[in-house]
Write a structure and sequence with these properties.
alpha+beta; BirA Bifunctional Protein, domain 2; 3 domains; 16 helices; glycosyltransferase activity; HisRS/HisZ; Histidine--tRNA ligase; HisRS-like_core; aa-tRNA-synth_II/BPL/LPL
Length: about 375
């Protein structure tokens, strides 16, 4: 019975988005797994329900709506386009009774080549509006993955180290460990140091021969390439102290949005790679203000969104209840790069957001 109320709430939210100009769409529940698994964060990948079809191969139950909606749009959607949807998503839970494994989401996705910041603001404002119209005043948090990615791409270090940091942006502990090592704040792990010492005394072929029977999935050429990469990385100088300090400062930035913008403007001359992303942040704040959002008090965290979906690459946001144990009631963000991955040579800027209908219903105090 509870799911009936949840489903009705989800459908009502999608209808509300449609009233604001979105087109209602359906999305497949059973999806091909091969491409999609790499697009989700570690958390969702570990919690996806998998099965094997004798014809189609490995499949997964839909863990979210954005990826299948993007697939549909890139296969022949209008340009620009705004979509709304409602339905169940499926994720394994780590503890019995922790959270439901099947729950309903309603959401909106905007595909538009121009007015990117205005589209960001519109999605955020629409979700904020519908939550308030249903009696929920929740705590918003915003961020911008694009600023952090720009900072990493602008570092004066090897391309290999920059790619390692970018790959682990969504894994804060691993990212911090790499940054500590690349900046010289942490020593080289003992196991790697031991391996490098051995490599300095012989070739990869010698070490493979000493190891005895050749086992494993990697070929000798792949092992040699990995050895070369480790050796080159060990010879790469540490990040300059001022540059590393600026990146640590950026990771810890939490402030009201206008104050955060002022801080970012202050460090941009010393970290010039972030300037275009900061300019977009400023334009977004103006667009949010035009939507009636108080950007003087709107919380901003530079690291926000780093433990969520890995396809976000710009503006990110979420709305939270007072209970910190609850997941976000609503969340979303910009995912321009995802459309290129799924677009078979085409791409279009896109942003979207979802609402957990069941959690919303619970907070509204509705009875089944």
């Amino acid at each position: 019975m509870r799911s009936g109320v949840e489903r009705a709430t989800s459908d009502r939210l999608a209808a509300w988005f449609a009233d604001q100009g979105a087109t209602l769409v359906e999305a497949d529940i059973l999806l091909p797994a091969e491409t999609l698994l790499d697009l989700y964060g570690e958390d969702i990948r570990a919690r996806a329900y998998m099965t094997v079809d004798p014809v189609q191969g490995e499949m997964m139950l839909r863990p979210d709506f954005t990826v299948p909606v993007v697939q549909q749009h890139m296969a022949g959607g209008a340009d620009p386009a705004t979509y709304a949807y409602s339905g169940p998503v499926f994720r394994k839970q780590t503890r019995a009774g922790d959270r439901p494994s099947e729950f309903h989401q309603a959401g909106i996705e905007v595909f538009r080549r121009d007015q990117r910041e205005e589209s960001d603001a519109r999605v955020f404002a629409l979700i904020n509006q519908v939550l308030r119209e249903n009696g929920l005043t929740l705590r918003p948090v915003t961020g911008d993955i694009g600023i952090l990615m720009a900072a990493v791409r602008g570092l004066a270090t090897s391309e290999r180290r920059k790619q390692a940091l970018l790959r682990h942006i969504w894994r804060p502990q691993r990212f911090r460990a790499l940054l500590d090592r690349f900046s010289g704040r942490a020593p080289v792990p003992q196991a790697r140091k031991h391996l490098l010492d051995r490599l300095a005394k012989g070739s990869p072929a010698d070490l493979i021969a000493q190891a005895g029977t050749f086992t494993g999935l990697r070929s000798e050429a792949e092992i040699a390439a990995r050895v070369q990469a480790l050796t080159e990385d060990a010879q790469t100088p540490a990040l300059a102290a001022p540059e590393a300090a600026l990146l640590y400062d950026l990771l810890s930035l939490q402030a009201p949005s206008r104050a955060a913008l002022q801080h970012l403007r202050g460090i941009a001359p010393m970290l010039p790679a972030i300037t275009p992303a900061v300019d977009r942040f400023a334009a977004r704040l103006d667009a949010l203000a035009a939507q009636g959002i108080d950007t003087e008090t709107l919380p901003f965290e530079a690291s926000h969104g780093r433990t969520s979906l890995e396809y976000y690459d710009g503006f990110v946001f979420s709305f939270h209840a007072d209970d910190p144990a609850l997941p976000p009631v609503a969340s979303g963000g910009r995912y321009d790069a995802l459309t290129a991955v799924l677009g078979q040579g085409k791409s279009i800027p896109a942003v979207g957001g979802v609402i957990r209908a069941g959690l919303m219903t619970r907070l509204m105090g509705e009875k089944p």
